[in-house]
Amino acid sequence: MLRAVLLGPPGAGKGTQAAKVIEKYNVPHISTGDIFRANIKEGTELGKKAQGYINEGKLVPDELVVDLVTDRLQQDDCKDGFLLDGFPRTILQAEQLDEFLSKNGQKLDIVLNFKVRKDVLVERISGRRVCKACGASFHVVNVPPKKEGICDRCGGELIQRKDDNRETVENRINVYESETAVLIGYYEKQGVLVDFDGEKSHEEVFADVVKAIEAK
Question: Could you say which residues bind ATP here (predicted)?
Answer without folding.
Answer: 11-16, 128, 137-138, 200
